[in-house]
Amino acid sequence: MVLFDRRTELNFPSFGIEIPTFDSRKSNALSALSRNRKLKELRSRWLVEGFEDIYTLDDLLRVNTKDYASGFYDSRAERRLISAFELVNSDGALNRWKPENARKPLRELVPRLLKMEAGTYRASKIALDRGFCHYLGGGAHHGHRDFGHGFCPLNDTALAVCKLQAEGAVNRVWVIDLDAHKGDGTAAIFADREEVTTLSIHMARGWPIDGSLPKNHPSWIPSDIDVPIESGEEKWYLQRLEDAYRKLESASKPDLAIVLAGADPWENDALTSTKLINLSFEEITQRDRLTYLFLEHAGVPSLWLTAGGYGREAWKIHASFLEWVLRRRLD
Q1: pLDDT given for residue 325 in this prediction
Q2: Which in 26, 101, 107, 309 has the greatest CB count within 10 A?
Q3: 150 lies in which domain range?
Q4: pTM, two decimal places
């Protein structure tokens, strides 16, 4: 199943934000699937359009501190966004933000954000019911308990897991993070939670663990399984990922796996901070199929999130994987 809701589109340009991630990544992937004649005919069997969930303060309090969480529902909301999206540098200069070009005040981004994040919870429920769901959204893995950075004010994976656990829908969860950047927020939030096993394969020296943060910063907290890839080591990426999955097999079988299928390790990604890893389209394709087949063989329901992906071409990564997996599941 694929979950998509246009109301979750953040539409950064309308707020004067110039981060090179585009809502078209999701809508273009969906359009590409619809151009496949077989998938178009079976659209009602694989597409869920829209959901009504939106995160409340009580939802955030399962993960975030009271002070940080409540700030999204009062006058501090704009400051939360400016900080997490890194719109103002330490010297006060604006960074990838031109408020004079904004058509909407920044605070109006909050309800869109809370809905987009809640989509991960809704997609988790679909995955538990159907065995697989790909949410065209989510993957904000740099959100921590009491701060956000790296374009991630909140951590939708952690919020979904904690809500599902509170409901008794899941106990054990694997989080498999394939984004170019380390899943630092997820690792920190679940560091002391034995029922959640985190795996992150990422740039060895890229943001956020690139030396710019002090050694006591929570971004340095390790995942349960970390697979750092140095620039130039891309030829060993798939083997190291396969080795990591063998380690993961030793952990207790989970009720759900959440996969952050970031497109940003791709060599054509447009974000400067991803340039220390450059996988080909074929390697990304093998990465996703390896992961899907590993979870299928293990009999673990999986939720996939779009996570990182920058530039006008990133949608091709998701469309390629989804065309393959949907045809496999519908045959």
Answers
A1: 98
A2: 309
A3: 2-330
A4: 0.97
